[in-house]
Amino acid sequence: MAQVTITVRKNGPLRVEDPNGLVEVVDADGNKYETTGKPAFSLCRCGASTNRPFCDGSHNKIAFQAPDCAIKVG
Length: 74
Fold this sequence. Notes:
This protein is mostly beta strands. It has one helix at 58-61, and strands at residues 5-8, 14-17, 25-26, 32-33, 40-43.
């Protein structure tokens, strides 16, 4: 089975690549978003998407600036 990869895009979304189409996205109330069979999708990081939790490209319109890199722990 192929591995799931999540890529943090610079000043953009979290890109989820799941060749098997098995990743589930669930909200705080336990409601599932339809992702069945999708080999890839992007999750909003800026908060401006009208299609949250999925990205709609709004980060470009608002000039979203994310931290430069991940904080290393340990």
